[in-house]
UniProtKB/TrEMBL annotation, chain A:
The keyword ATP-binding applies. This is ABC transporter ATP-binding protein. Belongs to the ABC transporter superfamily. The keyword Protease does not apply. PANTHER family: IRON TRANSPORT SYSTEM ATP-BINDING PROTEIN HI_0361-RELATED, METAL TRANSPORT SYSTEM ATP-BINDING PROTEIN TM_0124-RELATED. Keywords: ATP-binding, Nucleotide-binding, Transport. It holds the Pfam family ABC_tran.
From TrEMBL, chain B:
It is found in: Cell membrane; Membrane. It comes from the Bacteria. This is Metal ABC transporter permease. Gene3D superfamilies: ABC transporter involved in vitamin B12 uptake, BtuC. Keywords: Membrane, Transmembrane, Transmembrane helix, Transport. InterPro entries: ABC_BtuC-like, ABC_TroCD. GO terms for biological process: response to zinc ion; transmembrane transport. It holds the Pfam family ABC-3.
């Protein structure tokens, strides 16, 4: 019981469909504060669908998503970003928009906000880019700026869809460190991952989606099966999820 | 020399109609370009055009009911414009058609309906008046209406500015933050309709869009920052509206088209010689040395 009340996000017998086609069934889950959960599965297994449902963008056919995190403390970094890169905005301004939901749409930033924004940019190693327009950033720099926004937002629930694709290794190292710090501070983090090496370094728990079903596995159970640093397509040959 | 300056730039304003025209033009130049900048940034540049047509039947109905009364025509225009915007939104939600496709259909229906209504009730002179405006004929009531609407637009923009920025940049982020994020879009469309209504009596329903879009599209060649874009667009609009009026006074040419053509000249000039993305900028583009890049 105590564990149930501790958990910020629970999935109960979730049934999800896209365009009337069932994508996922009988998904159960319990996401605790401070835990980083890796969401894995082959392309089309329903990872993005599940994230949409958790964020409230997709209404479940049946079952429910119970989330105790306030809406303005949830952050979602999708893989295909809706972000308009031609928009004339600097890195600092983007990071600062993270404070917008919590202190209202209409009030200006105070010195404290700017100080916090600068601290966050320093942690992410993007201080020197503060006034650079978003359109001129590399993939890695952009990803760091977006994580900066979620830090500014003091996100308690963070969903990341393949945050390390098209990103340089230095950024990967920084992001892994920052995500771990956020989790240690109590955030609940769910990351869609494709790379076994990233999974080994980051995940506390793993939810594997296969054949329309979800299965919770221990990260070391997965990593022991494969050589480290190997990119695994997660086809999970031989297991028929339908029989589960 | 001083006499020449006086004759060109000061003495025209001895006339009351020129004074009212220039105040009306400056008020519009303050309110319209920021809306235009946001339209350009949202990739909705043509929506302004569509909305300008959409207010026409309302204006025409007002004209039929109350004759040439600007307040009544304006109210009709605002109501009809908002209705078309809502309908277009509803059709696109219902049928999965993109909002711009629905908007394109509605605006052409509106244009035809408006022209039909005015022709039924008035003469072709009235029609040209509504379609192309007459900034030199605005009276004090019209001026109060224009300045009042412009003030309202500027104040509302100041209040919703940040929400509008976030909605342009990352709609998903805004939607994630608030269930009521749709109001930002609605407020913006409302301001757009209001602005076009204020503009129609000076520039006409068709050309009111010019003072909104041309300075905004020109500013893209001069600045990469939002504040810069808005500031430059406002200055360009002010220069175009005042300069266009003076040109029309001295050369005895229609005022509305000369204002918009002057703004259009500004656009062509910017596209050729602007700081960014212009032809000249492409010709003089150099690569930044790596050392500078890292040191910055």
């Amino acid at each position: 019981m105590s564990q149930r009340s501790l958990s910020r996000l629970q999935l109960h017998n979730l049934h999800l469909a896209q365009a009337r086609r069932t994508v996922l069934e009988h998904i159960e889950g319990n996401f605790k504060p401070g835990a980083i959960t890796a969401l894995i599965g082959a392309n089309g297994a329903g990872k993005s669908t599940l994230i949409q449902a958790i964020m409230g963008e997709l209404r479940p056919i049946s079952g429910e998503v119970v989330c105790t995190v306030a809406k303005e403390r949830r952050a979602w970094l999708p893989q295909q970003l809706a972000l308009d890169l031609t928009f004339p905005m600097s890195v600092e301004e983007l990071v600062m928009t993270g404070s917008w939901p919590s202190h209202g749409a209409l009030t200006g930033y105070c010195a404290g906000h700017y100080r916090k924004g600068r601290e966050i940019m320093a942690r992410l190693g993007i201080s020197h880019l503060a006034h650079r327009p978003l359109g001129e950033l590399s993939g890695g720099q952009r990803q760091r700026a977006l994580i900066g926004r979620t830090l500014m937002q003091e996100a308690e629930l963070l969903l990341l869809d393949e945050p390390f694709s098209n990103v340089d290794s230095e950024t990967v190292d920084i992001l892994i460190r920052i995500l771990r710090q956020m989790a240690d501070d109590g955030a609940t983090i769910i990351v869609v991952l494709h790379d076994m090496d990233h999974l080994r370094r980051l995940a506390d728990e793993v939810l594997m989606l296969n054949g329309g079903h979800g299965r919770w596995v221990a990260p070391n159970a997965l990593t022991h099966q494969h050589a480290p640093a190997q990119v695994v397509p997660f086809t999970m040959g031989g297991r028929h999820a339908g029989s589960a | 020399m001083l006499d020449l300056l006086n004759a060109w730039f000061v003495s025209p304003f001895d006339y009351g109609f020129m004074r009212r025209a220039v105040v009306g033009g400056l008020a519009l130049s303050l309110a319209a370009p920021p809306l235009g900048v946001f339209l350009v940034l949202r990739g909705m540049s043509l929506i302004g055009d569509a909305m300008a047509h959409a207010i026409l039947p309302g204006v025409a109905l007002g004209f039929l009911l109350a004759g040439f009364s600007l307040p009544i025509m304006s109210i009709g225009g605002v109501l009809f414009g908002l209705m078309v915007a809502l309908l277009a939104g509803a059709v696109s939600k219902m049928g999965g058609q993109r909002e711009d496709a629905a908007m394109a259909s509605f605006f052409i229906i509106s244009l035809a309906a408006g022209v039909m209504l005015i022709s039924l009730g008035g003469s072709s002179v009235d029609l040209t008046h509504v379609l192309f405006g007459s900034i030199l004929a605005i009276n004090s009531t019209a001026l109060l209406l224009i300045t009042g609407i412009s003030t309202l637009i500027v104040l509302t923009l100041a209040v919703v500015f940040r929400a509008l920025v976030v909605e342009c940049l990352d709609p998903l982020f805004l939607r994630g933050q608030s269930r009521r994020s749709g109001w930002v879009h609605s407020v913006f469309l409302g301001l757009l309709v209001l602005n076009l209504t204020a503009g129609f009596q000076t520039l006409g329903t068709l050309m009111a869009v010019g003072l909104m879009m041309l300075p905004a599209t020109s500013a893209r060649f001069w600045s990469k920052r939002l504040e810069g874009l808005i500031g430059i667009a406002i200055v360009l609009a002010m220069v175009a509206s005042t300069g266009g009026l003076l040109l029309s006074f001295h050369l005895d040419i229609p005022s509305g088209p000369s204002i918009i053509l002057l703004a259009g000249f500004g656009y062509l000039f910017s596209a050729l010689f602007g700081r960014y993305h212009s032809l000249a900028a492409k010709l003089r583009r150099k690569t930044t040395p790596l050392a500078v890049e890292q040191g910055s």
